[in-house]
Amino acid sequence: MSTALGYREFGAADVQEFFDRPDPVPGPAEVLVRVAAAGVNPLDHLLRSGHVRELNGHVPFPQVLGMEAAGTVLAAGEDATGLEVGDRVTGFALTGAGTYAETTLLLGESTARIPDTLPWTWAATIPVAGTTALDVLDQLDLPVGASLLVNGIGGGVGIAVAQLARDRGLVVTGTGSTAKRELATKYGAAFIDYTASSVVGRFDAVVDTVGGESLRTVAPLAKKLIAVGDQSVTELGGEFVHRRLDRASLERVAELMAAGRLDPHITGTYPLARAHDALALVESRHASGKLVLDLSL
């Protein structure tokens, strides 16, 4: 048996509850993992709220929160090739299986080994923020010296995009609230405080992590526009990020972290017992950087 935080119906935070469940049994293409750390993401509360039922509306209750984790392989299905019991891994969970839990199932093809030197908490941020940033920049394929505006630089995806863009020789500017200025400049980005002035200028590309009216404000500022959360970007002549979710992408990000070229900028670590608090902060949209559940706490 293992403890998990999930929900038995769609709704607000008050539907969340801890419960015990038997350790899941991996299917042929899955791996059972003892979770060491799990990332906390906006999609977690959107799934719980029922706002994206095309993703989890078909999954039986109870569903467990969370979609990314790092941990140790306990068992592997016969088709989960390249993964063995005892491996240190990071990956994406099956929808509904969740990662706010002591054990969970990860998709074999979306799970990768990680270097022994990589902390569990860092590894838990790779599947969502890390590979999203990689996908965005690969999709843009900008030349060295090109200018990039990151709309919403202070979140986990935004700060990862900024670092990887700088690593590729791009000139990065980020938008955010006043409190995000120090974070942006720490990673070499120019900063526009959208609470104090209008976002203006011309850029070779814009990456939007905010959506809504903010997306519409920055859309005219560049030839290329990619959004990571708001699919209405296509109505503005832009593109939604094409997600790969494959082992090769996970391995690339792990290597960048191990080499010191990408810092997930973890601003808060919480024990599983306080997962409610971590998700509430993300849901409030006041979190900066990345929040992680550390099951060793």
From TrEMBL:
Keywords: NADP
SUPFAM superfamilies: GroES-like, NAD(P)-binding Rossmann-fold domains
InterPro entries: ADH-like_N (IPR013154), ER (IPR020843), GroES-like_sf (IPR011032), NAD(P)-bd_dom_sf (IPR036291), Zinc-ADH_QOR/CCCR (IPR051603)
Top-level taxon of the source organism: Bacteria
Keyword NADP: yes
Keyword NADP: yes
Protein name listed in UniProt: NADP-dependent oxidoreductase
SMART domains reported for this sequence: PKS_ER (SM00829)
Organism per entry: Amycolatopsis echigonensis
Molecular function GO terms recorded: oxidoreductase activity
Residue ranges constituting the Enoyl reductase (ER) domain according to the UniProt record: 11-293
One Pfam assignment: ADH_zinc_N_2
Signal peptide span: none
